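Lab notebook, bench 4. Still working through the backlog of constructs that have no structural model yet. Next entry is a single chain of 128 residues. Request: give me the C-alpha cells for it.
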Amino acid sequence: MPFGPGDDIRKAAEKVLRNGGFVVFDDGDDLEYVQYSMDGGGLMLMWPADGPRVASGDASVRSLLESMDFRQGSDIKKMTPKTYVVEDDGIYAQFGHDLDLVENFTTSAFERVYRRLGVKKLNARVDV
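Model written out:
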C-alpha cells in the first residue's frame, strides 16, 4: 500500500508529541504551510495573523476549525482540545493528542484554505 500525505502528517506529529518541538507542513510552497508545536496539553496549531499566504483573519481558517467542532475560547493559557483562541498575532488551536484530527485538519487546510486539490506529498520539517 503506498504512503500518502496523511502518513507523513501522522508520523511527524507523533514525533513532536513524543519529543516536543514543532512541525511545519508544506507542499513545496513556503508561503502555504500549516504548523504545530508541542504545548502543554498536546499539539497546538498556530496560524499567523500575517499569513502564510492566507492570514488568520480570513474566514476560511475559522470556518475550517468550526467545521471540525472546534469552539472559540478566550484564554490561551486555559485551552482544552478542540478550542481555539484569536490573539493579535494569529489563531491558536489546541489539538491535544488526536492524530486523526491533526491529519484531517492539515489535509483540509491545503484543500479548502489554499485550494490545493490532489496533494500527493507534504514536506514535514520537524524541529525537536
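Notes after review: The chain has a mean pLDDT of 90. The two ends are 29 Å apart (CA to CA). Flag for follow-up if needed.
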